Structure formats: C-alpha cells, structure tokens
C-alpha cells in the first residue's frame, strides 16, 4: 500500500455507514422535497431517479475507485494518479474545484442545519401544538428574518463540525451513523404513517410519482426540470466534489466498490423518496403551496407534529436526528480541504480544521443574511428565488460545479486512465458488469450532462444578470447607500 497520512476503515460496513452518513442529510429531507415542489413534481422525480441510476452510481464508483487508488486528499490524489498514468498534473485542479464546491456548500448547509437546531427547541417546547399552516409559516418566517438567531445556530453547528473533523473522522461518526441513521429512517416511516391518515395522501403520491406533463407546458424542460434534477442527484449522493473520493481513500483493497455503491445509493434514494411521501400529503391537506421554497419542510412537518399523538416528542426527535444527519454530511464537506492542508501544508489536523471551518463559517454569514437584510429576488428554473446569495451558492454548486466535477471524474477514469488500472481497482474482471459501467461512464454521463448544460443556455444568461446585479449592488454600496433588497 502507498504511504498515506490516514488509516483505513476497520470494516467494509464502516465505510458504507460513513458514506451513507455523507449522502443522507439535508439534501434528502430538506432539499429534495422543496425542489420537487418547485420543479414540477413527478417529472422532476423521474428525471432525478434516472440521473441517480445512469450517472450517479457509475460516477460514485469512479470516485471511490480514484480515492482508493490515490489514498490522499482529492487534490493530491488527482495529481498522483495523473502522474502515474502519464497525464498532465493539472488534473489536480479537479480536486480544487471540489474543495471550493465543498466550502460553498458547507457554508450554507450549516445555516440550514442551524434552522434544524432551532426547530428542535421549537417543537420540544410545544410551539406547534394545534398549529395551522398560517401559524407554522409565521413561526418559520420569524426565524429566518432574525439574522442574530440564524448566525448563532450557524456558528454552533459549524463549531460541532470543526470539533469532530479536528479529531479525525472515525469513532464518533461511526456511532452516530450506526444508531441515528436507522432511527431517522424509522421516524420517517412514522411520518409516512401519519401522512397515510391525511385526506390527501393519494394526491401526494400522485404528485410525486405521476409526471404531469401539462403542468410543464410553460417550462423549459432542460433548465427547469432536467438541470435541477441532475444537480439534486449529485448533491444527494455527495458526488462531484471529492467527499466520497476521500472516504474511498480509507477503503481497504478487498472491499467491493460496486456493491458498496449500490447499498449507499439505495439507502440515499429511499430516504429522499420517503421524505417526499411524508411531506406532500401534508402540504396538500393543509393547503400549502408545494413551490414554497426552502422553508417547505419547516412549515409542513410541524403541522403534522402539532396534530399527531406524541407529536411534541416525535417532532423534537425528528429534528434532532435530522441535525445529526446534517452533521455527518457536513463532516465530509470539510474533510477534503482539511486533509489537503494536513498533507501539503504540514499543518496539524486541529489547526487545519479550524482554519478551513472558519472560512466556511464566514461565507455562511452571507447566507444567513441573504434570508433577511440581503435578500433579493430573481427567477431561475421557472421559480422565483427570493434569497439572493443563498440561492446563487446553491445553484452554482449543485447545478454546475458538482455535475462538472462528476463528468471530469468520469472522463478521467474512462477515457484517460488505462483500462487495466480500472479493471484492477473495480475487481469485476472484464465482465458484463464492468462493460456496462465503462459504457455509462464513457458515454452516457458526459453526453447527458453536456446536453443538459447546453440546453440550459438560460443558465448562462442568468449568470450574466447575476453579475450585473452584483456590480450594481457594489456600486450602490460605494455610493454610501445603506442596505438593499427587502
Ligand atoms: N449529500 C449530502 C446531503 O444530501 C450533502 C453533500 C453534498 C455532502 C456534497 C457532501 C458532498 O445532504
């Protein structure tokens, strides 16, 4: 084995648990339902599932393969493997793209995780008992319009993340994932049970699983449905930015990458689908708007907790478990940068964690303020986005940086690396399974992403307008005017 600054997972299951911990998080329970609601229900879900199967799983296999072969941080892994294969060392920039995406995601992820912590207390104190949709909406709006509170919980969450990463990813993570993930899963089943008792359960199911192409007539299929669904597949599986690559770097040589990936992807996708089944019947029964945006679960689920038996207990427990799920994901967002600082800058792990975490925290301050002082509106993918920088960070990373990173991983592994290296690493021999993998990653993933990108020209126009908006804001600020937006 190569020399490595880190050890190995003590068993295959621990790798699966850690990678599932990275994959399952706010992306499944908070982001998936609200994007489904914004981008056309069933059609979005269908494209998302296709993206998971045809691009997500093969790219995840490639990322783990690279990680296990390189056994370093993504930046150094890419550089080492490129050198080994006689390629340009600038492939390390793929690692950099990932580190940057990780920082940006972590910065806003921590703010949303902060909402989750705030909701632990709100549900625990019985704030939602008997509440209707209007009341839960007010409670949520009050929370996000208080920058002080958002910053407080954001700071606490980031601190917990930094503490764990600074001690090395192992013990705590293992325990958290082993017990808390299954508990979250069971609680989602309880929520689905509640959803079944609501009047509009079937409407919720239809909305999720039966594409309604009429409702899409006004939308641009590529930029309004395909691109966000593609982004969600990458975001939810934690691929395209090195998180899974780094977890792969701790994986032992004799563990099967393919079966591990299937387990992780199935667990991740089922959690998202269960969250959808739990939420949409509540949304329809209580007259909420599915396209309500990032607050969707925070205004819909509390109504259920306020109505069901032992709702205060279940509600509080639900948000506690969601916070842990967010935390096991955020660890993997910070890990690539920290490992690189330790490896290349010879920093201590503690120092590296605090420095990297502090930068992500600072960026997160911008997100926290984009729900109140700095909120501004723009339209994207058929939806009005109201939270300026937060939405920009989110779209930039999941719809652009992650798919781009993922496709570069696909191209590197299937077109540039020697066939022998990938055969060796995957351990599938030259079987049919290997050929299917190689075909999807060679053709389907790059061509699929390219088609979606090219057809989302609107996205580029969008970026131009964002650029102008930022210049405009800077100009207003430099003229000494105070505040903008809402
Ligand atoms: N997959 C995580 C979630 O669904 C988020 C994440 C994205 C984590 C990218 C790591 C890398 O919540």
Structural account:
This protein has 486 residues and is an all-alpha fold. 76% of the residues lie in helices and 1% in strands. The chain has 19 helices and two strands. It has helices spanning 12-23, 26-38, 42-70, 74-84, 92-124, 133-144, 147-167, 171-196, 201-209, 221-237, 243-248, 257-285, 296-307, 311-344, 349-369, 388-416, 419-426, 432-455, 457-478, and strands at 378-380, 383-385. Strands 1-2 form a two-stranded antiparallel sheet. β1 (378-380) and β2 (383-385) form a beta hairpin. α3 (42-70) packs across α16 (388-416), α5 packs across α15 (349-369) and α7 crosses α14. The longest helix is centred in the last third of the chain and has 34 residues, at 311-344. The N and C termini lie far apart (57 Å).
